[in-house]
Amino acid sequence: MAKKLAVTVFLLLLAAGAAQLVVYFPDLPRQVVTQTDAHGEPSTTIIKVGVAAIFVIVLLFCTAWFLGLGHFLGKLPDRYFKVLPGRDYWLAPQRRAETIRSLQTHLTWLGNATMGMFMAIFQAIFVRNTGGPEFNLSTASSLFTALYLTYVFFALIKLQARFRLGEKKQDKGAT
Question: What is the pLDDT of residues 151-161, one digit of tens each?
Fold first, then answer.
């Protein structure tokens, strides 16, 4: 269930990203402001088609990386899971499938967060360039990136805690 939910959210984000581009692209100016200085003045611009191309590449890369890599996790030999705490316990034949499914789910949620961060940054760019309120894009990007990194920090703690339990079970079984 958790994996299906994560994949469903990912696909909804992908669809929302496509809709974002369809809605905002026609109204973008020829030169799109993508970065502002400390005073909110434009400091970097990119041609309209370039912004669309970057956005599509980001969406496709996130899809290929987070869903594609998750698909191949189960095919990797155990030696590639060196950083997994309690690796021998979690990758034992009776637990391997559930472990891989859990890793795939965590990876997909990370993909959701990554996709959300990029979509928020592009939304700020689109709004700023289509007559919306003028604001500092660098500040908005920094805020979205900070929120994303906070999520990654706590997701890693949760992932680490989830697999640390196996080491404790393994230690209890050995004594």
Answer: 999 999 999 88
Parent domain of 84 = 2-174
The CA distances from residue 53 to 6, 28, 50, 66, 70, in Å, are 26, 13, 5, 20, 25
- Per-residue model confidence (pLDDT) at position 175: 46
State the chain's maximal CA–CA distance in angstroms.
70
Domain count, the chain: 1
Neighbour-count burial for 125-149, b at 16+ CB within 10 Å, e otherwise:
bbbbbeeeeeebbbebbeebeeebe
Q: Is the pLDDT of residue 58 over 70?
A: yes
CB neighbours of residue 20 within 10 Å: 16
